[in-house]
């Protein structure tokens, strides 16, 4: 489940990056940012719902990183709404880097705990 959501997040980032590389319609970019935020919120809630069952030791830092990612998305969406050119290749590269870092630092160890507790395929 989590891996499919991760792939979906990256696909949306790719779609935004392609749009930014073209005619860059702000309405389409705004839709993609909304989709990205919606999937991220759902994904983060799914992850966080298991923290208590696992007595997950990094829960506080993990949640803080989720909030940081969502705050960045909110800032980009607000900047786009104000007509600023905040959504560009550099912004998408930054989001992609933040997501990759999160996967390595938080999600990989978290996934191992899930498998230990609930078994493969979790």
Level of helix content? over 70%
Strand tally: 0
The Rg value, from CA coordinates, equals: 15 Å
Q: Beta fraction of the residues?
A: under 5%
The poorly predicted ranges are: none
CATH topology: Four Helix Bundle (Hemerythrin (Met), subunit A)
CATH level-4 homologous superfamily: Hemerythrin-like
Q: Tell me the number of helical segments per DSSP (H or I, 4 or more residues long).
A: 5
The separation of the N and C termini measures 7 Å
Shape: elongated
General description of the model:
This protein is mostly helical. The chain contains five helices and no strands. It has helices spanning 2-21, 26-49, 51-54, 59-81, 89-118. Helix 2 (26-49) packs antiparallel against helix 4 (59-81). The longest helix has 30 residues, at 89-118.
Topology:
Elements: H1 2-21, H2 26-49, H3 51-54, H4 59-81, H5 89-118
Helix pairs in contact: 1-2, 1-5, 2-4, 4-5
Short description:
This protein is mainly alpha-helical and 122 residues long.
Characteristic key phrases:
mainly alpha; Four Helix Bundle (Hemerythrin (Met), subunit A); 122 residues; single chain; elongated
């Amino acid at each position: 489940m989590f891996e499919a959501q991760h792939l979906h997040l990256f696909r949306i980032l790719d779609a935004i990056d392609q749009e930014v590389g073209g005619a860059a319609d702000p309405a389409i970019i705004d839709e993609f940012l909304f989709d990205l935020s919606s999937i991220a919120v759902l994904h983060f809630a799914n992850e966080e719902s298991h923290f208590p069952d696992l007595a997950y030791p990094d829960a506080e830092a993990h949640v803080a990183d989720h909030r940081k990612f969502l705050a960045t998305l909110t800032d980009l969406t607000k900047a786009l709404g104000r007509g600023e050119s905040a959504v560009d290749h550099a912004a998408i590269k930054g989001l992609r880097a933040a997501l990759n870092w999160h996967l390595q630092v938080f999600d990989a160890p978290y996934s191992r705990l899930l498998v230990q507790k609930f078994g493969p395929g979790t």
